[in-house]
Design a protein that fits this description.
This protein has 314 residues and is of the alpha+beta class. It has helices at residues 3-18, 29-47, 55-64, 97-109, 113-124, 139-150, 157-160, 174-185, 192-202, 218-223, 247-250, 288-294; strands spanning 153-155, 166-172, 209-217, 234-241, 256-265, 268-274, 283-287, 301-309.
Amino acid sequence: MGRSFFNRAGVVLCAVLCAPLIVLSQTSPLEQSALSDLKALYLMAAKEGVPQVSLPQKIEYFSAKFLNKPYLGGALGEGAQSHFDNDPLYRFDAFDCTTYVETVMALALADSPSSFLEVLNRIRYQDGKISLFTRNHFTSLDWTPNAERLGYLRDFTNYLAVGKTMSLTTLIEKQKWYEKQAASMVKSTDLIAEKMQYIKEKTQNLPNAVVSLPYIEKSDLLQNPEMLLHFPAAGVINIVRKNWNVRDAIGTALDISHQGIFFERNGEIIFRHASFRKSSQYVVETPLLDYVRHNLSDPTFAGINVLSLMEHRR
């Protein structure tokens, strides 16, 4: 840790930042409400026989519970006692696209309130260790490989369009991203400048990484709708962006801008997601092909990356 950091903040900040990031016995009213909601969700699911149905059916069931819930960017954090992002570890009143996917997956994969939180933390954090610095911030670099290691998801894209998939190569600059995003990462209201500096110094030596992401071109999907017949029963769709000029704004290039849950219903692939469009900032569902058609004219929308939910997981 840099000497200048401790000179500014002194022993007091060291004591704060060296303490445990989460104190589970101290929760906010929002977290207490979320716990009540979680218990009610599993109680209702048990009454409706959900524990006995397949994993794709659980995905459909739980994802429907949050339709029309409002969109909220950065909805989750490391909990009320976090020294940085003190948004709740889980909630059910609002979502961004990723927290919606994570919440639905965890509800479907777990079988009780206690196992839900364990599964959710394993999805969101490396080795399930709750910290701003172990959170899987980057979808293609961190989040998907972590879910694949856990046996929760598998990239199915290449199986859907054999010999036709495209590959997008992206340079992810984590250090510059943390530097740019440090201000927005500190949501607790004390020692803000010192905490921002801590984030920058802790991440200053993170290496860049190159990611290759397979995807199905949007036009290819529309021209070959029979491809949908080979989709898994349920999973995650990532919206892939090409030539998306966000580096100056956020510190790094990105290859994925959005994600959502999909499942098959009556022979159709349904896409449920927390939409951030101005006209529909809430959880919505639409047939996947309709979503692609609606966004076809967007020059940066390249196509989709498809992840299959694994029924028999480790």
